[in-house]
Design brief:
This protein has helices at residues 3-17, 26-48, 58-63, 70-76, 101-110, 121-153, 155-171, 173-184; strands at residues 53-57, 85-90, 94-99. With 185 residues, the chain is mainly α. It has 2 domains: 3-119, Arc Repressor Mutant, subunit A (Orthogonal Bundle); 129-184, no CATH class. Strands 1-3-2 form a 3-stranded antiparallel sheet. The protein is rod-shaped and about 125 Å long.
Amino acid sequence: MGEEEINNRSTLLNELLKDDKSHLPWFIREPLEISERYTDFVLNFLMRKRKGIGKIDRLVLQKNGINFSVDYFFEKENSINFGYVDVIKKTDKYLILKINENGLWKYSNNCVKYKIYVPTFFTRFRITVFTIFRKIVSALFITFPNKLKIFTDSGIYKLILFLIAVITFILKWDEIKNFIHRITE
């Protein structure tokens, strides 16, 4: 089997795999195209990694313009279902995937190539610091004043202030009595 015959067969195979979906109605065609794009995104992302192993989380999806949760994204894409990638670890927040031989073949033969943005360690650190800073500022300037206002409007606060005044009056009674005697003399 010559090299030219192999190339012709792979070209024919690529044409067969790239079904023309123009005859389908939009409500069927659109989810299929989106699913293909997301599958291509996963394959491009894993091929960009050194050993074909990568962690896909919410930040990776956001950096690449996909504003879904990780679970919803993996419901829509088909790389796991079609066996292009193997799941190494799965949590609610991220998936660690490894591309396998089927995925390598799909990537090299009929996968649209995308430029993938991968967040760096500095980006993740910066987002973490800003998140902590935002929570502290929110607690100091929003939550704490609101809780303080609710507490000062409550009856317990007014009772405590009244008891402080009464206790102070009782403790200072001797001084008040001496002051009244000096004035009246």
